[in-house]
Amino acid sequence: MIFQHPIKPFRLLYPSALWRMDRADGSVYLTFDDGPIPQSTPFLLETLRQFDAKATFFVVGDNVRKYPELFEAILREGHAVGNHTFHHLRAKNCSVAHYLDDIGKAQDLIENASEFFEKESGEMKKEKNFFPSRKNFLEKEKIFLEKEDENTGENYEDEKKENEKNPSLDLSDNEALPLFRPPHGTIPLRHYRAVAERYRIVQWDIVTRDYNRHVSAEHIVHTIQAYARPGSIINMHDSLRSIDKLHTALPAALEWLIQQGYTLQTL
Ligand SMILES: [Zn+2]
Predict the structure, then answer these.
(1) Which of the 8 DSSP states describes residue 236?
(2) Could you tell me the distance, in angstroms and rounded to a whole number, from the CA of residue 230 to the centre of ligand 1?
(3) Radius of gyration (Cα) for the chain, nearest Å?
């Protein structure tokens, strides 16, 4: 069975992750994972600009390295960016230390490119503090890594009990942290806890499955029409597997969302 909204037990596993924004503000939040790439990002940016819509791009560090001009174009258009690891890693396949290291590598690149852009253009919106320095987290990270072992732990029940016994993770003030979305959606809780201390983990309210070859452009638009609600964070992709569909689905979805009175904002 396919769920467009995340099911409750899944949400409860990741209590401090962001699933849906303020339902009172009349906005929805498009998010595009996996870019930037030349075959997709320029079309997404052009279409968003036509509709005066802002979005959030969860970029893969290696793609930022390969296509810095596309990353800069995202910033120049006033969109937000978040971290999606350097190598699009699946968390359960690697140790917490390795996972954090890969995310940190992507974050360094994102922050350096953003700081460079900021200096060059003077356009960056400082007040939102998209890219707070990682330095604050380095000390914590060091302590954590010293304790880290190679167990990649996938037993959610044990993890959950451990979480309950150890509720020391106070993330009530995590809005200033850099944004992070785990590739492939799921993340073992040990990885989750380590990452959540350093990043604001963003999940979604609606998945369009635009990457799936059985999902058509019409289906993507239909999913958004059927499930969008105030505050929805909508998951789409900036990738080869989705772009052919987004050529028609993105303008159609934007047109419909705007007709419904939604504004399209960055996270
Ligand atoms: Zn991804």
Answers:
(1) E
(2) 24
(3) 18
Arithmetic mean of pLDDT, 64-85: 96
Q: How many angstroms separate the alpha carbon of residue 158 from the centre of ligand 1?
A: 27
pLDDT per residue over 179-225, tens digit each? 999 999 888 999 999 999 999 999 999 999 999 999 999 999 999 99
Cα 160 from Cα 252, distance rounded (Å): 41
Give phi and psi for 35, each to the nearest 5: -80, -165
Neighbours of ion ligand 1 (CB under 5 A): 33-34, 183
Task: Compute, in angstroms, the gap from residue 41 CA to the centroid of ligand 1.
Answer: 14
Query: Hey, how many other C-beta atoms are within 10 angstroms of the C-beta on 24?
Result: 8
Cβ burial 210-229 (10 Å sphere, 16+ → b, else e):
bbeeebebebbbbbbeebbe
Give the Å distance between the CA of 237 and the centre of ligand 1.
7
pLDDT-derived band at 158 (thresholds 50, 70, 90) equals low
Burial degree of 103 (CB within 10 A; 0-12, 13-18, 19+):
buried
- Catalogue all structural domains in the chain, each as residue range(s) with its CATH number: 8-264 (3.20.20.370)
How far away, in angstroms, is 165 Cα from ligand 1 center?
32
pTM over cut 0.70? yes
Q: Which residue has the higher pLDDT, 159 or 111?
A: 111
Residue 61 Cα to ligand 1 midpoint, Å, equals: 11
252 CA to centre of ligand 1 in angstroms: 23
> Alpha-carbon distance 258 to 193, whole Å?
37
163 C-alpha to ligand 1 centroid (Å):
26
Question: What CA–CA distance (Å, rounded) separates 209 from 258?
Answer: 21
Q: How far is the CA of 32 from the centre of ligand 1 (A)?
A: 9
